[in-house]
């Protein structure tokens, strides 16, 4: 993997509750200048789509961060984000439904979003809150719903991406490893474990760590 390919695997991210448009512009500039993608809050997608220095791929989040929105609200949020110009959707599952054994409801909710937008949907399963058996059921729901990718974490629960979780999840779909990845070495460990995308607020540091 050369540097450009490595940078293109990074979703440079800003999703905190105090995120301003100025913060988003900084991330967009850094992503564009380094060859990364950007993952930003949905309220700024329309502005980002019109921004002159936006990167090639802009992702946003739906049902974020807890996944407890009504299913119709998640679908409508995804459609609004697509209409505003996002290229990809990162959708948080309803962890409570999964833990209650309502896997069909989890899959149906994902499927509604996948059917509503003609862009890739990554499914955030929040691995830190799940047992290995639950992680597998969440991934199976994503497969049943025709999702494009599964993602480890929102970054808002204790814990984040681990090599073990990436290995498990990659048995089902391509994986975005997100949460706690802050260096080139950590990113490469996730990619070597089977991830195809890295979500990180430290994207610049990660790319700058690529051996020269």
From TrEMBL:
<keyword id="KW-0963">Cytoplasm</keyword>
<feature type="active site" description="Schiff-base intermediate with acetaldehyde">
    <location>
        <position position="151"/>
    </location>
</feature>
<feature type="active site" description="Proton donor/acceptor">
    <location>
        <position position="176"/>
    </location>
</feature>
<dbReference type="Pfam" id="PF01791">
    <property type="entry name" value="DeoC"/>
</dbReference>
<comment type="function">
    <text>Catalyzes a reversible aldol reaction between acetaldehyde and D-glyceraldehyde 3-phosphate to generate 2-deoxy-D-ribose 5-phosphate.</text>
</comment>
<protein>
    <recommendedName>
        <fullName>Deoxyribose-phosphate aldolase</fullName>
        <ecNumber>4.1.2.4</ecNumber>
    </recommendedName>
</protein>
<feature type="active site" description="Proton donor/acceptor">
    <location>
        <position position="90"/>
    </location>
</feature>
<comment type="similarity">
    <text>Belongs to the DeoC/FbaB aldolase family. DeoC type 1 subfamily.</text>
</comment>
<keyword id="KW-0704">Schiff base</keyword>
<dbReference type="InterPro" id="IPR028581">
    <property type="entry name" value="DeoC_typeI"/>
</dbReference>
<dbReference type="GO" id="GO:0006018">
    <property type="term" value="P:2-deoxyribose 1-phosphate catabolic process"/>
</dbReference>
<dbReference type="InterPro" id="IPR011343">
    <property type="entry name" value="DeoC"/>
</dbReference>
<dbReference type="InterPro" id="IPR013785">
    <property type="entry name" value="Aldolase_TIM"/>
</dbReference>
<dbReference type="InterPro" id="IPR002915">
    <property type="entry name" value="DeoC/FbaB/LacD_aldolase"/>
</dbReference>
<dbReference type="GO" id="GO:0004139">
    <property type="term" value="F:deoxyribose-phosphate aldolase activity"/>
</dbReference>
<keyword id="KW-0456">Lyase</keyword>
<dbReference type="GO" id="GO:0009264">
    <property type="term" value="P:deoxyribonucleotide catabolic process"/>
</dbReference>
<dbReference type="GO" id="GO:0005737">
    <property type="term" value="C:cytoplasm"/>
</dbReference>
<comment type="pathway">
    <text>Carbohydrate degradation; 2-deoxy-D-ribose 1-phosphate degradation; D-glyceraldehyde 3-phosphate and acetaldehyde from 2-deoxy-alpha-D-ribose 1-phosphate: step 2/2.</text>
</comment>
